UniProtKB/TrEMBL annotation:
InterPro entries: ATP-synt_VA_C, ATP-synth_a_Xtn, ATPase_a/bsu_AS, ATPase_F1/V1/A1_a/bsu_nucl-bd, ATPase_F1/V1_b/a_C, P-loop_NTPase, V-ATPase_asu
Protein family according to the UniProt entry: Belongs to the ATPase alpha/beta chains family.
Biological classification of the source: Bacteria, Bacillati, Bacillota, Clostridia, Eubacteriales
Gene Ontology molecular functions: ATP binding; hydrolase activity; proton-transporting ATP synthase activity, rotational mechanism; proton-transporting ATPase activity, rotational mechanism
The keyword Transport appears for this protein: yes
Record-listed ATP binding positions: 164-171
Record's protein name: V-type ATP synthase alpha chain
Biological function: Produces ATP from ADP in the presence of a proton gradient across the membrane. The V-type alpha chain is a catalytic subunit.
Biological processes per GO annotation: proton motive force-driven plasma membrane ATP synthesis
Enzyme class (EC, first level): translocase
Catalytic reaction equation(s): ATP + H2O + 4 H(+)(in) = ADP + phosphate + 5 H(+)(out)
Record organism: Clostridium cochlearium
Domain ATP synthase A/B type C-terminal: 373-474
Amino acid sequence: MPLSLKLGPGIIGNMFDGIQRPLKKINEISYGFIDEGIGLISIDKEKQWDIDILVKVGDKLKSGDVYAEVQETNIIKHKIMVPQRVKGEVIKVKENGKYNIEENIVTLKDGENIYKLNLYQRWPVRKPRPIKNRLPLSKPLITGQRILDMFFPIAKGGTVAIPGSFGTGKTMTQHQLAKWSDADIIVYIGCGERGNEMTEVLEDFPKLVDPKTNTSLMNRTVLIANTSNMPVAAREASIYTGITIAEYYRDMGYDVAIMADSTSRWAEALREISGRLEEMPAEEGYPAYLPSRIAEFYERAGYVESLNGKEGSVTVIGAVSPAGGDFSEPVTQNTKRFVGAFLGLDRKLAYARHYPAINWITSYSQYMSMLTDWYIENISEDVIDLKNKMLKILFEENKLQEIVKLVGEDVLPDDQRLILEVARILKVGFLQQNAYHNEDTYVPKEKQYKMLKAIELLYDNAYKCVKMGIPISQIRNEEIFGELVKMKYNIPNEDLSGIAEIEGKIYSYYKELIEQYSK
């Protein structure tokens, strides 16, 4: 039988290795090391769960139908579904009560076939779970990270690659997305990365409070830990283990986000196994089927209607670790072919302490056109134009930097010097975000929009002054510029009235300046 998972209550809040062995339980048995022959103990067979039975004798059930519910954590209701290729009429059913996952709850009869259903089902990890329909992507995954939500949005059911060399903040970006994205469930796969990074997740997540539910983040998180010192074969399987668990919860109607850190280590495991099997190597020693394996993984993402009619999604966010930051290597290039958003991390930004170090010139998201209606309906009608205007300023500033490096800023005309000043505010005051600051680690979309509007207001008013011939030294008001940069820290997320005060100062200062020079 191919490698299969036990899918049932007891997965959320747990920590497994790449083949679904519970590491907490193994630690109790063998203290820090996995002994040889410890066996596949998987989810807890002994624990008693409070079961609500949803069917009665005589009901007709088919694959995917929900026949019982379990309150798995205080925020996740686990729906027990009829396994694949099973259907029939309920002939026997137990009453609500406490049961372990092995006990038979419902018995079905289909002709001469009798099916005894308990609280779990098995599923092979390499086989995608079936669905009724794929639906168009129309809702964003709100992350609270300004550069993503405003400039490079991720759709629920989308695919994202985060490539970057050592020290550019891949893991930190993944941690931020796992902490603050508005998915119902997070599956965090530590695939071939350092053990201390998984330790950080284990230490941080229980202490953090989910802003949606005001409970511990571990109540909606599954950890798959296959660190660099664990077996290569299990590392190769860990990606599939994570996405199979995600698909299982998607079928219940949940929005699931997968953080795979890092798919490069998974590809290296593929390369090592391929070498042991004496297969013909392709580019850089990777197997020739590397692109199809990467495609198989990312194609399991999507916004779907499951067999029971519930809508759910799996969003895949994969970190890529190209050696030496070389984005032309096979894993990065093949990943780029299959993802809808590419968030390239820049070493120069990271070394300048600009985090998240997402390069706004090389990054892109194909989802903005799909999400336009949602943004207009839920934020503002002008939000897309505003985003494009700010990105244009950043692109122009990037071109001007080449001239500035050669001959200095003073030779530029004032309208171009204004672009440099506004881009500086955008970069430091908007794109840069502090993961360790209470107000700045997560920013609601309303505040993000108002921050951009305030920066736009400054640019429009200052541009009028430039066109009147007012010198840039007069236009640049250090107090106003400083307040715009610091508003991410100084203005609380719950009370945005401070932004209106800054806008009032911008209006009055430039109005006085125009009147003064008009005379």
